[in-house]
Each structure stands twice: as structure tokens, then as C-alpha cells.
């Protein structure tokens, strides 16, 4: 708000601002019984268009932040509920194991208890961000995975060097021991005891 904005001009601006996408100085003039020329002059002097845009952006940002907060709260409620269900599934399986007579155990009962425990553990692991499965990758005929760096981009080479240095990969190269600018990585082996 400009320091010299009168109470009447401010009242007119608030009406203009609150009109949203339908705002116009002509509508403000009509509503207040004043001339459009006066509204246009006040609008220019007191930056109504810019201030209204800033207001709209602030309202949109607040609405987006509130929606994000509500989504996160809903996700957290769901996560807690799934963990609670997983705990109940484990409790049911534990009680079943505690109260079953060993002679009553058969493949169907064991399979049902196992599935209940597995589902409970998988659900909880998903909700805590842990992996629920392990995937191993092998190259042709069970050998190493072949990776060829064809980029001249130093970043691609440095990623492989970092992985090698921390022991994640063992690189097999043709040429010098150091990765030269034009070097190609022909094979990548999982690092193991060397």
C-alpha cells in the first residue's frame, strides 16, 4: 500500500482485489458510484494490478501449502494405520503359533501364518522406506554387467571412479590405469574381496 493512499482509495482497492479474476476498475467504479477515470487514476498511483497479483500469488501459495500439509497429514495417518494393521497381523500370527497344537500344524496352516507375517513385514518395510525385495543383476551367462561410458562428460567418468574408490565397482579398462579423457569403461564388476 502506498503511504499516501486515502481510506477511500484503499477501500476501492480492497474491492478490486477481492473481485479475483473478474476484477476491473469499471466494476469498482460502478459499485462505489464513482467515475472509472478516478478508479483508473487510483489504480495507477497505488499499483492495484501489481498488488492484486501479489495478493493472488500469496493466497495461492497459502492454499497450496495448506493442501500439501493436509496431504502429508493424510499420508501419515494412513502410514500409522498400516503399521497398526501390520502389528495386529503379527499378533494374530504369534497367538496362532502359541495356541496351536503341533499335531494340528499342516501345510495350509503354516502357509497362512507365513503369508500373514510376510504381508505384515512387507507393509511395514514399505511404510518405513525399507526394501521388500532384493534384485541381483548379472551380465551375459551370469558374468559381470558390461557398462560402456561413451560420454566425454567428465561427470560420467568421475561417477565410475567414485564407485570404484568406495569399493562398489571394480572397473576393467583398456589402456592406462587412470581414466583419460577419451577412456572407455568396458566392464563393470561388483567389487568383492580382492
Keywords for this entry:
194 residues, mainly alpha, 3 domains, two-stranded antiparallel sheet, 59% helix, elongated
Give the SSE layout.
Elements: H1 7-18, H2 25-32, H3 36-45, H4 48-99, H5 107-127, H6 154-165, E1 169-173, E2 185-190
State the total count of DSSP E strands. 2
The backbone outline, from C-alpha atoms, is: elongated
Radius of gyration: 34 Å
Helix count from the secondary structure assignment: 6
Query: What is the averaged pLDDT score?
Result: 79
Strand percentage, roughly? 5-15%
Helix content: 55-70%
User: Biggest β-sheet, characterized?
Assistant: 2 strands, antiparallel
CA-to-CA gap between the ends? Answer: 71 Å
Give the total of domains: 3
Low-confidence stretches: 172-194
- Report strand order across the widest sheet: 1-2
Following the backbone from N to C, one meets helices and strands in this order, namely HHHHHHEE
Briefly note the structural class of the backbone: mainly alpha
How does this structure look, described?
This protein is mainly alpha-helical and 194 residues long. It folds into three domains: 7-46; 56-127, no CATH class; 140-190, no CATH class. Helices cover 59% and strands 6% of the residues. The chain has six helices and two strands, in the order H-H-H-H-H-H-E-E. It has helices spanning 7-18, 25-32, 36-45, 48-99, 107-127, 154-165; strands at 169-173, 185-190. Strands 1-2 form a two-stranded antiparallel sheet. Helix 1 packs across helix 2, helix 2 (25-32) packs across helix 3 (36-45) and helix 4 (48-99) runs antiparallel to helix 5 (107-127). The longest helix is centred in the middle third of the chain and has 52 residues, at 48-99. The relative contact order is 0.06.
